[in-house]
């Protein structure tokens, strides 16, 4: 899927637990090139994936993050945690498709807030280097989730059109 073929805006909204406030919307450019392998993994598994993301920056030690993705049919939920970290996830991502054929369940916001509360929110520990790597991996997982959900949605729409024909 090329960037020109992807016509939906991707807005990033986030919670900064240290500042205790929301930030965004920040528009993200859709760049799936760096996560094609991850996209294939997400598409190959039926609704859920758990695995490792490795962050490498020249001149810095590499870090391994544990990541997961769950396709909730109307949204995608992802978490990222530093491998070996004793606390909860360091990043929690909810990908909500732009209004279109997919309809959100009314209880989605409550379910997401309950999930974050159950996890006691994202962990705030980590050095600046960890935060930089985490930010890069969160963007990579977000791009893969958006690409995966878009392809699955297109496949569902095509199947629905075939049934109607």
Give your account of this protein's structure.
- This protein is an alpha+beta fold and 165 residues long.
- It has one domain.
- It is built from 3 helices and 6 strands.
- It has a 4-stranded antiparallel beta sheet with strand order 3-4-5-6, covered by helices on one side. The protein has a two-stranded antiparallel sheet with strand order 1-2.
- A hairpin with a 7-residue loop joins strand 3 (48-55) and strand 4.
- Helix 1 (36-44) packs across helix 3 (128-164).
- The radius of gyration is 16 Å and the shape is globular.
- The protein starts with 9 loop residues before the first strand and ends with a helix.
Key phrases:
165 residues, two-stranded antiparallel ribbon, alpha+beta, 3 helices, disordered N terminus, four-stranded antiparallel sheet
Query: What value does the Rg take, in angstroms?
Result: 16 Å
Strand order of the largest sheet: 3-4-5-6
Largest β sheet strand count, sense and barrel closure: 4 strands, antiparallel
Give the N-terminus to C-terminus distance in angstroms: 26 Å
Helix fraction bin: 25-40%
Number of domains: 1
Number of strands: 6
User: What best-fitting shape do the alpha-carbon axes yield?
Assistant: globular
Low-confidence parts lasting 5 or more residues at pLDDT below 50? Answer: 1-6
What is the tally of helical segments?
A: 3
Structural class by helix and strand composition: alpha+beta
């Amino acid at each position: 899927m090329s960037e020109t073929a992807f016509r939906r805006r991707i807005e990033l909204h986030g919670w900064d637990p240290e500042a205790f406030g929301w930030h965004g919307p920040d528009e993200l450019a859709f760049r799936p090139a760096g996560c094609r392998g991850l996209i294939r993994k997400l598409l190959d598994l039926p609704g859920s994936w758990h695995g490792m993301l490795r962050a490498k920056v020249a001149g810095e030690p590499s870090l391994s993050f544990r990541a997961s993705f769950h396709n909730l049919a109307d949204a995608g939920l992802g978490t990222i945690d530093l491998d070996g970290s004793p606390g909860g996830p360091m990043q929690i991502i909810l990908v909500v498709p732009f209004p279109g054929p997919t309809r959100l369940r009314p209880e989605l916001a409550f379910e997401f807030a309950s999930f974050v509360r159950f996890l006691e929110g994202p962990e705030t520990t980590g050095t600046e280097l960890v935060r930089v790597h985490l930010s890069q991996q969160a963007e990579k997982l977000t791009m893969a989730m958006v690409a995966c959900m878009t392809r699955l949605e297109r496949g569902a729409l095509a199947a629905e059109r075939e049934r109607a024909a």
